[in-house]
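Hi R.,

As promised, here are both runs. First protein below:
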Amino acid sequence: MDADRALANARAALAAAAERLALAGATPEQLVVTVPAHRALGVIPRRESFRRSGEGFVLGAVLVTASGGAAEPGRIARASRQVLPGHQSESARARRELRQRLLDARLPEGSTVVIDSRPLPLDDAAAMSVERGPLVLSDDGVLVRWMPTAPDSALRPLDEYLADRLDLALGALSAARTESEHP
């Protein structure tokens, strides 16, 4: 199969998956990149913060965007002011601080946030042919490495993978909608 055609087909399939989710009422995850701690004007200390970089939907090992882009998901957190009483472990305090910093970055409260996702080079056949992330270009087209440690023999065709993940996501949306209508 022609590599450029395979990548164009993959972009179309990813965009169609994002569109189906949006039409079904799925809320997209907010994508952010980390802005390291620095000094403003050379003297005013600024702590690490976040800058929005878009929206997308996490479908298992792949994050898809409406434009047909794909990324390897980074850390996933929820922007919230959740405060739990009593003693908390250091890791719980760190998660609470992260959730607060996401709110400080003006992300909507309760939104799911993907931090520092790694875009996949779907416009570059040479880069995709050596990619070891969740999407891999092979002679058979674009395949999905659904688990980071999966061997090449376990890769799945992108279309099949997206169909399975969309069935799961749309089924969960439908079930949540039904539950909220009939508590």
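And here is the second one, sequence first, then its structure tokens:
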Amino acid sequence: MSWQPDGWLDGVDWLPSPNFGERPAGEPVSLVVIHNISLPPDEFGGAWVEDFFLNRLDPTVNRYFSTIFKLQVSAHFYVRRDGRVVQFVGCDQRAWHAGQSCWCERDNCNDYSVGIELEGSDTQPFTAEQYAALWGVLDALRARYPIAAIAGHCHIAPGRKTDPGPYFDWPALKTRYPDVDLPAEITA
């Protein structure tokens, strides 16, 4: 995988989201945040997540959609169940994925992180195809940015978020990236 200007990754689908901003000057990308998402909750397939990140989610399709369609959120990457990767925001830009957050006593994780959404939920394992795609994206990110840590949304927003959930394979990530800082409960 190679990189284009502004942190767009070749070899993935690009769907530019309007939901992004500039990173603070001189702030390196040093953290990756792993999330899960499914729309409607616990249902996979369809274009609902893409529509959500592009501000075109139809609130009349599903009752849950009517509660979130006005939110303006995005992630840098979305990994579908089949391993297809969609990029919404260039990694040199600030995506809106973390919300109120803190990592190692540093607030505003969006300022210095890349967000990767895995199509999934807290109730089901992720697929082998998703892990293969995730490793490829992480390898590319580590080649371009000084990634020092990888955490789940649950680690940067404890009590508020639970993703990527209990089925995420932290031991595999720890084995593959032994030099990257991980949340304390993962390394214990």
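A quick note on the second one: The two ends are 33 Å apart (CA to CA). Let me know what you think.

Best,
J.
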